[in-house]
Each structure stands twice: as structure tokens, then as C-alpha cells.
Design a protein that fits this description.
There is one protein chain. This protein is mainly alpha-helical. The chain is elongated. The two termini are 30 Å apart.
Amino acid sequence: NCGALWGNSTGNASTYELSAATDFFDTFISHNWTVGRFKKWCTLAFHFNFRAASMTMVLACMMASALTAFGVLPTARNNSGYLLGIFCRAVGGPVFFITLFFGRNIVHLFGVRAPGVFLDKVCIHQENKDIQREGILK
């Protein structure tokens, strides 16, 4: 959903439904509503996915290099006549950015748990004052 939750500061019953009771969370996010949702989404993507994106890109480039070395993937010649493996360049960037921005969505399809995050708009009810008070006091 590309950060749709970050679009505004208003919460409601449907955003509260996204939360779950827990004794532990991995990250507390203190938000700033003056920053646009795309910047928030990019910042969180870098925070949570940069290491995985970097490792995935390196593995993809290593595989492309090995397949090029074994003649499975084609090469090109530069102006000096040297052979160039072009697939590391073609694969590295897209693999990095897909993993960076959508890696959590992809691994979620395989049942991998995402980090537990506390976000007040979701974890504290924004409409029902009794539930809100209870959530703040706990």
C-alpha cells in the first residue's frame, strides 16, 4: 500500500483494527505529520530493509557473475575488445530497490513475521475515548 497509513494523522476504528495486543514491540515510531507520506515510507524502508536489500543485491550479482562466467548468460564487448558481463548491472539495481521497498510484503507472503511496531494512530484508539484512555494508561 506504499505507505497509505502515513497519508494523514487521523485514526479511526479501521486503523485501530490493524493493531494487536502484545507484551513486546520491536520499534516505537514517533511520527511527524508535517513530513509527506512518501518521505516517511522511504525512511522506514531504509531503516527496516536496507541490509536485506544490500545482501539480496550482492547475491543476485554473484549469481549473475557465476552464470556469466560459465557461459550461461551472454556477454558484450566494449570498445577495447574486453568481454563485459552486463547482467550484474541489469539485475543489481532492480533487485535492490524491489527488496528495499517491497521486501517485507514479499516475505509476508511466506509467513515471515514483520517487526512489531508501535504507532499511536494505530495502537491508541482515536475515536472511542474510553478505549483511548485505557490504551494510554497501559
